[in-house]
């Protein structure tokens, strides 16, 4: 097994936890604002990290770490995901999975197998034609909707999150997303970061003022239990 990237210690990738972060390459979406565009098509073999290197570090530091964040790309596409999660759990570490929610069957299997302690799911736009337009690949909204519901029904700890890109999302869109998350424990609005994006034209785009993000959060908060801002 190999992974595309590895951060040994992070206080940012899992709120309230000291975690390591593993990045798997490959993604089925083409969101223009993606901040990990180098992972979309799959990493070059020579740039990959041997899993044994990661596992050795986790074994030596499992007393210090709370868990491991498995991110991407879209990790549910990687055939090595199952053995990676099993290896992490065998060390007594918790797992947070970052996902775009487009593979509900795989997500259901992982949760059912007890391999995931926390799911962080991106909900990129309202679950209609706006979703397909924004993610660059048609036919994804229905699977994302299924994934949302299975997370809510499973009882697994979770958050849903949306990156607020000014030219793509307005307050009414955020409210529509929040309505689809009724019952969710947490909804996070993430500030857009223009420095690294799949579409280089977005580099000239200014993020929204924090005051406007707060107004969006207040509006979304009428439909979900908790709304937070991140990166603002």
Please describe the topology of this protein.
Elements: E1 2-3, E2 5-10, E3 19-23, E4 49-50, H1 51-61, E5 67-71, H2 81-90, E6 94-99, H3 104-112, E7 118-122, H4 129-135, H5 141-154, E8 157-164, H6 171-180, E9 187-191, H7 210-220, E10 227-230
Parallel strand pairs: 3-5, 5-6, 6-7, 7-8, 8-9, 9-10
Antiparallel strand pairs: 1-4, 2-3
Helix pairs in contact: 3-5, 6-7
> How many distinct helices?
7
CATH class: Alpha Beta
Could you tell me the strand content as a percent range? 15-25%
Name the structural class.
alpha/beta
User: Could you tell me the radius of gyration in angstroms?
Assistant: 17 Å
CATH superfamily caption? Aldolase class I
End-to-end Cα distance: 36 Å
CATH topology grouping:
TIM Barrel
What is the string of helix and strand elements? Answer: EEEEHEHEHEHHEHEHE
* Percentage of residues assigned to helices: 25-40%
Q: How many structural domains can be distinguished in the coordinates?
A: 1
Question: How many distinct beta strands?
Answer: 10
Can you tell me about this structure?
This protein is an alpha/beta fold. The protein has a single domain, classed as Aldolase class I (TIM Barrel, Alpha-Beta Barrel), CATH 3.20.20. The protein has an 8-stranded mixed β-sheet with strand order 2-3-5-6-7-8-9-10. The protein has a two-stranded antiparallel sheet with strand order 1-4. Helix 3 runs parallel beside helix 5 and helix 6 packs parallel to helix 7. The chain is globular. The model has no long low-confidence stretch (mean pLDDT 94).
């Amino acid at each position: 097994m190999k992974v595309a990237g590895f951060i040994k210690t992070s206080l940012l990738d899992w709120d309230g936890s000291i975690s390591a972060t593993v990045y798997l390459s490959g993604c089925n979406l083409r969101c223009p604002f993606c901040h990990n565009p180098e992972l979309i098509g799959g990493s070059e073999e020579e740039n990959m990290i041997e899993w044994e290197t990661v596992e050795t570090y986790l074994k030596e530091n499992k007393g210090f770490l709370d868990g491991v964040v498995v991110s991407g790309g879209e990790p549910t596409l990687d055939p090595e995901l199952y053995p990676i999660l099993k290896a992490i759990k065998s060390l007594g570490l918790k797992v947070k999975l970052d996902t775009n929610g487009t593979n509900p069957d795989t997500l259901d299997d992982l949760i059912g197998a007890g391999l995931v302690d926390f799911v962080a799911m991106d909900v990129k736009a309202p679950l209609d034609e706006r979703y397909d337009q924004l993610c660059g690949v048609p036919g994804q909204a229905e699977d994302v909707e299924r994934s949302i519901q299975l997370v809510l029904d499973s009882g697994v700890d979770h958050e849903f999150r949306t990156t607020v890109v000014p030219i793509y999302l307005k307050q009414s869109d955020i409210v529509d997303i929040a309505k689809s998350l009724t019952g969710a424990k947490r909804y996070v609005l993430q500030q857009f970061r223009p420095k690294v994006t799949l579409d280089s034209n977005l580099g000239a785009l200014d993020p929204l003022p924090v005051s406007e993000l707060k107004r969006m959060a207040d509006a979304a908060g009428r439909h979900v239990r908790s709304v937070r801002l991140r990166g603002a």
